[in-house]
Amino acid sequence: MTTAAPSALKAVTILGATGSIGLSTLDVISRHPDRYRVFALTANTRTEELFQLALTFSPRYIVVRDEADALQLQRRLHEVGRETDVLFGAQGLHDVAAHEAVDSVVAAIVGAAGLESTMAAVKAGKQVLLANKEALVMAGHLFMTAVAESGAVLLPVDSEHNAIFQCMPGDYRSGLARVGVRKILLTGSGGPFRTTPLSELASVTPAQAVAHPNWSMGPKISVDSATMMNKGLELIEACWLFDARPEQVQIVVHPQSVIHSMVEYIDGSVLAQLGNPDMRTPIAHALAWPQRIESGVGALDIIARGRLDFQEPDYARFPCLRLATEAMQFGGTGPALLNAANEEAVAAFLAGTIRFTDIPRVIERVLGEISAVEPQLLSDVQTADREARQLAAAIISDNR
Ligand code: NAD
Ligand code: MG
């Protein structure tokens, strides 16, 4: 193993480099070769894309899922004279998340699959740029305890939480009441089915569900936006990140996605962060924090935007919002059960196995049949995740 020359460049690992957030992060990084160097990139199965990214960014390591793919990529990289080492599997992800040469880890794997590597970065005390909201939803208490113990710096990349972070005073961790914050206004577009007649929801297709009106994202989070489970997960995410009670977080439907969220203070002030809906803004903010860098996102033309609308969320249309609130109230492994059932249901919907309106039904049954417990260890969260997936899979196959 060769040792990199000491450098003032920030060394960045991107977990989930081939995804929507991963590629947006690389776009921002490529604009600032004087500030960042790519230390490691990981992918699950898109090995050819990862190979091309390795040629462009010359990381010290890349990580793939399977050993056979790793061996093949290693051979190809050597053939073209590259020094990138190829690792594989959970150990590979852990190693590049916790490596002593890494400054910042972008946690951009989708779903529960990102939990262990994100936790490894947290426990190693890294600056963690958190996109993988599912990890925090599943293991909120253990996750935030690990942040406090290791001194990791947690920077939210999810656009709403990044907006809230930007609107909070610097010392918000001393308690929202102490810093004069009354509540958080968590905005969401309402997704592609905000105005679709309710009678048509049962027959919407995966292609319609992933066609988000404002944001371009991976398939899982796009479906979550269509059911508004994404906003439910984000409510839980906000409670952990900002130490807020659920009743201090108000969900506001804002179809234009110009305001990315707001913070209301006791003196009546409401601070908002606005911008074009492009994830490169929160990514650049988190990468450079507490400084600012150019992100490639164009200026917001507020005159052209013309108007901003706000509505109450429709709980009858979006039962996932209620389910997420209930899971949060159960506490303990409740949110992990919710998340696992949701991941299974979304995958089944995308595969054409269940209808869009079956997604909340599967989750509701899982939450009704498995009790939440207080997890002591990450393995307790993983057990709850496994049980919920098994039950969800059984419900889905009965449903067929
Ligand atoms: P995506 O599907 O586009 O990309 C997912 C990435 O994770 C890919 O690089 C893939 O290789 C990797 N991955 C998938 N399964 C894996 C596994 N089992 N093991 C290891 N790696 C695996 O997803 P995305 O839209 O980029 O979302 C990533 C995360 O960021 C999600 O948690 C999502 O909720 C969050 N997020 C995304 C956006 C967005 O605009 N895309 C916005 C806010 C938050
Ligand atoms: Mg979001």
Write structural notes for this entry.
- This protein is an alpha/beta fold and 400 residues long.
- Helices cover 46% and strands 14% of the residues.
- It has helices spanning 20-30, 47-57, 67-79, 89-98, 115-123, 133-150, 159-167, 206-210, 219-227, 229-242, 280-288, 302-305, 319-330, 334-350, 358-369, 378-399; strands at 10-15, 36-42, 61-64, 85-88, 104-107, 127-130, 153-156, 181-188, 249-253, 259-265, 270-274.
- The strands form two sheets. Strands 4-3-2-1-5-6-7 form a seven-stranded parallel sheet, with helices on both faces. Strands 9-8-10-11 form a four-stranded mixed sheet, with helices on one face.
- It is globular, with a radius of gyration of 21 Å.
- The model has no long low-confidence stretch (mean pLDDT 96).
- The site of nicotinamide-adenine-dinucleotide (NAD) has 25 residues, from helix 1, helix 6 and helix 9.
